[in-house]
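SEVERITY: medium
COMPONENT: batch folding queue
REPORTER: lab tech (J.R.)

DESCRIPTION
The queue accepted two submissions in a row. Attaching both inputs and their returned structure tokens so the on-call engineer can compare them side by side.

ATTACHMENT 1
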Amino acid sequence: MAVLEQKTVAFLGAGSMAESMIAGVIEAGKMPAESIYTTNKSNKERLQELKNKYGIHTASSEELPYEKIDLFILAMKPKGAAEALSAIKDKVRPNQVIISVLAGISTTFMEEHLQDGQQVVRVMPNTSSMIQESATALSAGRNTEKENIEVVKELLECMGKVFLIEEEQMDLFTGLAGSGPAYFYYLMEHMEAVGIQNGMNGEMVREIIAQTIYGAAKMVMNTKESPTVLREKVTSPNGTTAAGLQALNSYNGGDAISQAVFHAAKRSKEISNELGGKLITN
């Protein structure tokens, strides 16, 4: 059984995704703050901010205690991945695991930029990891041992639900879940604007919309019924819901949602191609 409490993790990058994951792990109570390190290329003020907020270790890349770290998480911008991998190539051992949370950075890409036999894992969380509600995908590289896959899975479960998928599905997962929260925030923005424009208190209307989305999601998860069945159950002929759905159809709302997922997935694949990454196709 994987024992996360005995592991040490280093985040290579200190942006919003790194912070979301750090917050989720610490909040879950499965890894002490002193077992977490973070570094970035040059922004020392950002590192100090994270140290003050979470009590974690911060260091320059040269100062990281590489020999003590079990899991390295690539959390910089995707364009910096090759440089970061080259920088750690001769500093990590085969029994350490390199984890990418970056769109478009495949396990093959990581393996090609590291020593032969290096264990790598590609994951795609979303920013809901900060409140331990992320939908996170995991795909392991060819050299990664089952025990280490379980360690990474345990780490990710501190931040929500984890789905083991084939790597060729990772771009689609990115479009669905990695970028997914932004679609709902976009929807909420527009619903909120209608409420405010028609005289409702902004704070109240936001809470109403958030509770509505939360309740709808819980209905799907708790009843195990499909969204189609649930939609039909609340749609009376010639009723208010039917009128709203008819407007959505008239303005191609369904197509817009489909295209959002498609274009995010397409962009994930483009990033991989731009960086020279290769996706597994077997």
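ATTACHMENT 2
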Amino acid sequence: DDSDHSGGAQAVFDGVDVEAFVAGILPAHPLWASARTRGAQTVRCAAGQRWRWDGVDFEVLWPDPGPLAGKPNAHCCVLRVTTAASVAPEAQDGRVSALIAADIEAGVEHTLVARDPERLRAQVLVVPHHGSRSSSTEPFLDSVWPLVAIFQVGYLNRFHHPHPGVYARYAARDIVLARSDADGAARVEARPGALAVERFRDTQRRYWMDPPTQD
């Protein structure tokens, strides 16, 4: 429900035809009405939902079915996306998974770990809650065990995300890291034998990104 997650949704509705809108927001949120006005199917995300699109598997791990409880961070849809092709020997079955953890915090992490730690396993992790101190607990990282972790953070954001201690926790595990404030967009490509990470500011660098030189 936070604006840095859902604030752009209305612009999407205005710009493209949306057939289905899936979200973890309260029933009174105006986006539900906006989606229905445009003829979109509306579904509140809930653990256990699964679908396949073009051979790619999607599974919602959180929140639980029923009324949303607690603060908005606990309402977030946690989504696990798994590739169709056998492309990476690092994965047990040759498939690659990405865990998109939204803004969940330690309490939800503990619940997911206690419920089924194997289901959290993913080679790519979109870091929970922008790398805040309230998330990325050790048991959660032990369960996910990512090879690549992506920090979605705003440049010079007022919350000082990611927290230095949390960032160091990832770095100590030899995880390949990318962060949007320093790297721009990150693209992860599953290649035979490896995951390749492309950082936009490396491959699409512009002159204004470089520090000025002194004559």
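NOTES FROM REPORTER
The chain is about 25% helix and 25% strand.
No errors were logged for either attachment.
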